[in-house]
Amino acid sequence: MSDVLDIAAEAVLASLLKDFTQQMLGSHELDKGYAGPLISTIEQEILASGGFAKVDFDLALKQLEERKYVGTGPWKAYENDPYSSVVFIGGYSVREYVYLTEQGYRRAKPAPSSRDSGPSQTSVHISGGTFNQSQIGIGNDVNQHLSVDVSNDDAVVNHLLDLLKRSGQPVDEAARSDITEMVSRANTGDLVTVKPLFQRFFGTAVDGVKQVAWNVIAAIITKQIGMS
Fold first, then answer.
1. Does domain 3-109 fall into CATH 1.10.10.10?
2. Where are the domains of the chain?
3. Most buried residue, 130, 196, 198, 199, by CB count within 10 Å?
4. At 139, phi and psi to the nearest 5?
């Protein structure tokens, strides 16, 4: 495969890895499959960079499927003609969405040595589940240009504790200690141990609080795995 197609394939894997992380999924989904982003959405994202043609994307996705790095869905059973003596058993992918397999996850996840070990500052602007808009409303409060420096652990912990307060949950030294531990684990990219801690504090929070809090954690994890 040409360098252009290889790069396109890597870009697809990187996008799927980011989506997988933000969905808070685990190894079970890699093994059994899950509803990933629409193929059309990934295609638009790749083509928007201006470096690839549609045929590049199509061939890159085809190679990823052949190598079992990705799967597509949903799966649909063959519809047999009740008056025909020929019966088709099984089904086929409708090819609406694409998802990572375990092999694809291993291929997409950068090696530790490829991560930037030097100091850096990454601020994310959060609004209603995205990082790019200008405001966020939680309850009756609207904050303009809310930002979090995800390289500053103290700032992240304080923002998460503030979100807990907004959701009406008590905030004490025990909560601060546990939230600090969650942020510390997120800094290692360890989604497996972060997820239960997150669910413990934000699992029952209102949707606005839960989404914003998870976007902060996801920003930390994706930074650690080289996606931001």
1. yes
2. 3-109, 114-224
3. 198
4. 65, -125
